């Protein structure tokens, strides 16, 4: 039987209309659920299957970790990569995780607006796997924020195939904003390294492993479902002009702008 809103009480009309309207919109145009409803497992799940889950994780991650990252570095960022990674092993270890990347873009300046303004691209979904050797023992789930500082690094993340951190993209442990002396060699020269990595353990215990050597790949299936575009590429999402910043990413944009602008 066809749905008829006239049969509903007025108090239910708007919620039901919103529900059916939401069903007909692609995921990128839908609102992300309230972050306060996220449980511990939602925040530390290393394998997510939707972009909405990765957006919630990235937003929560940035809220928790941004004080460690120098504001000057964030303002020089060409892109921000968010990953939640599970690691486990003894001597030989494995790691797997998922996340997303957003690129920094500039608005076109005008006569009324003397300076261009930074805004963030639509997100592109990522997955990572890696193997480690050496003095390793235990297991852990870690949230990572990787700050990319060069256009070449962003271009590498736009490739349709995997990239290897430390090879295609040089990566360094990011200096903490809480230790000013550690910033002296980097200040005003953030391109000294292509990427700076910040990590925060969510659970468990681990010794001696990092993201260096990990393979990071675009998740084409997640991107295609989120944007309802089967052939969409990371380059179109991050660098192109045909995919605007989606409504679903607004919580992430809000926390980024509140901190960086």
Task: Characterize this entry briefly.
With 261 residues, the chain is an alpha+beta fold. It has helices spanning 10-23, 40-44, 51-65, 71-75, 151-157, 220-227, 234-239, 250-260; strands spanning 79-90, 92-106, 118-120, 124-132, 137-148, 163-164, 171-173, 195-207, 215-218.
Provide a descriptive summary of the structure in words.
By secondary structure, the chain is α+β, with helices and mostly antiparallel strands. The chain contains 8 helices and 9 strands. Strands 1, 2, 3, 4, 5, 6, 7, 8 and 9 form a 9-stranded mixed beta sheet that branches. A hairpin with a 1-residue loop joins strand 1 and strand 2 (92-106). Helix 3 packs parallel to helix 8. The termini are far apart. 35% of the residues are buried. The mean pLDDT is 81.
Helix content: 25-40%
Helical segment count? 8
**Unreliable residue stretches:** none
Task: Tell me the fraction of residues in β-strands, as a range.
Answer: 25-35%
Largest beta-sheet details: 9 strands, mixed
Helix-strand pattern, N to C? HHHHEEEEEHEEEEHHH
Task: Give the helix/strand class.
Answer: alpha+beta
Q: Any idea what the shape is?
A: globular
The tally of strands reads: 9
Cα separation of the termini: 51 Å
**Roughly how many Å is the radius of gyration?**
20 Å
Mean pLDDT, nearest integer? 81
Task: Please supply descriptive tags for the structure shown above.
single chain; 261 residues; alpha+beta; 9-stranded mixed beta sheet; 8 helices; 28% strand
Task: Compile the SSE list and pairings.
Elements: H1 10-23, H2 40-44, H3 51-65, H4 71-75, E1 79-90, E2 92-106, E3 118-120, E4 124-132, E5 137-148, H5 151-157, E6 163-164, E7 171-173, E8 195-207, E9 215-218, H6 220-227, H7 234-239, H8 250-260
Parallel strand pairs: 7-8
Antiparallel strand pairs: 1-2, 1-5, 2-3, 2-4, 4-9, 5-8, 6-9
Helix pairs in contact: 3-8
């Amino acid at each position: 039987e066809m749905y008829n809103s006239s049969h509903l009480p007025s108090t239910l009309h708007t919620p039901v209309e919103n529900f059916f309207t939401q069903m007909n919109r692609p995921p990128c145009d839908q609102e992300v659920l309230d972050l306060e409803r996220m449980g511990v497992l939602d925040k530390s799940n290393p394998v997510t299957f939707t972009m909405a889950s990765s957006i919630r994780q990235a937003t929560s991650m940035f809220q928790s970790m941004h004080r460690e990252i120098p504001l000057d570095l964030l303002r020089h960022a060409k892109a921000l990569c968010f990953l939640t990674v599970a690691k486990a092993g003894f001597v030989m270890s494995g790691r797997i995780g998922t996340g997303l990347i957003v690129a920094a873009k500039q608005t076109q300046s005008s006569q009324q607006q003397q300076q261009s303004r930074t805004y963030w691209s639509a997100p592109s979904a990522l997955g990572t796997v890696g193997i480690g050797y050496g003095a390793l023992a235990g297991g852990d789930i870690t949230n990572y924020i990787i700050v990319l500082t060069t256009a070449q690094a962003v271009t590498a993340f736009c490739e349709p195939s995997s990239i290897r951190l430390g090879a295609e993209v040089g990566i360094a442990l990011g200096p903490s904003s809480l230790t000013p002396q550690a910033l002296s060699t980097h200040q005003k020269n953030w391109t000294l390294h292509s990427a700076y990595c910040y990590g925060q353990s969510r659970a468990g215990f681990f010794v001696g492993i990092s993201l260096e050597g990990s393979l990071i790949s675009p998740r084409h299936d997640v991107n295609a479902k989120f944007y309802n575009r089967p052939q969409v590429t990371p380059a179109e999402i991050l660098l192109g002009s045909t995919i605007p910043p989606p409504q679903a990413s607004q919580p992430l944009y809000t926390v980024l702008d509140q901190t960086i602008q």
